[in-house]
Amino acid sequence: MDLIRPLAVYREWQRVLNPGGVLLIFDANWNLHYYDENLMEEVKHREKLCIEKYG
Questions:
Q1: 3-state SS of the chain: helix, strand, coil percent to 5?
Q2: Whether pTM exceeds 0.70
């Protein structure tokens, strides 16, 4: 999900967070393999191994 107004979102998260609470933000590039040929080959290889093992 893209944040259209990230500063507003962060302010709201800070507002609703309990005092002393912790906000964990995890961001990942799940589609990086579409832009990296070597990584795409690795993904395809792992997918093949998974299908061979689990069907």
A1: 60, 0, 40
A2: no
Are 13 and 25 contacting, i.e. CB atoms less than 8 angstroms apart?
no
User: Residues 7-29: pLDDT tens digits?
Assistant: 999 899 999 999 999 999 888 88
Return the CA Rg of the chain.
Answer: 19
Decide if 39 contacts 32 (C-beta within 8 A).
yes
Written as one letter, the residue type at 14 is Q
Residue corresponding to tokens 């290889």? 45
